[in-house]
Amino acid sequence: MAKRLCHVRVKEQGNTVAVQRESQTWTTVTAISHPDEIRSYFAHIIRAASEDIAIVPSTGTGFAMTMIAHNILRDMQVKFKFQSFSFSFSFSSKKKVKLLLLQDEMSSEVYAWQEIAQELEIEFIIVPHPTSSQGWMPIILQILQEHDYNVDICCLPQVHWSDVGSHIDLALIGNVCHLHDIKFVIDGTQSVGIMPFNVQTIRCHGVQCT
Fold first, then answer.
1. What is the dihedral of CA 132, 134, 140, 141, to 10 degrees?
2. Of 91, 161, 184, 203, which residue has the fewest beta carbons closer than 10 angstroms?
3. Distance between CA 30 and CA 184 in Å, rounded?
4. Under CATH, to which class is 32-208 assigned?
5. What is the pTM (predicted TM-score) of this model?
6. Is 68 buried (19+), middle (13-18) or exposed (0-12) by CB count in 10 A?
7. Could you list the mean pLDDT of each consecutive 10-residue stretch along the chain, which spans 210 residues?
């Protein structure tokens, strides 16, 4: 009985610590004791500065993309209200935000924009699945051209999560976005750390990945 009671108390103490960690995700991230070191390592992987790296509790639920979306919209001077956060920025001259996404993209890349669309008028420009072996690139560039590059935000991955081997040339898309003043956001979960990734050449405004 004494042995079992000892085990129960140890488990209780461990569970208490775990709950405290979960309620204070800004102090510990999945038991990472050196977040600055982790940021430095990750910054090296994507060729960024460590102070530009944020460690967040989740990307799969759209948390990371929500943070990126807020920063992008703030930079665009769009006024909107989202859930429990109230943002007061000067109004944009545009009546709606035009957002380009790939068809059937991973939910973590889409959730944030769908939530924001409940408060802010967003026109979703969906790039359909390619029907040729040339992949996504020709059709992405074609749709941008068809819209006369009148797009506010491009939110793309380096590889589509369900299209194995379908590569998207982020540097080329980044150059097009830079030329036409389009905000460029990337979901790098499927590729960062495996494929070459350089924010300096891609010139994107935000990257999320797990």
1. -120
2. 91
3. 29
4. alpha beta
5. 0.76
6. buried
7. 54 70 57 78 92 81 81 72 44 69 86 82 91 87 94 92 81 96 92 91 91
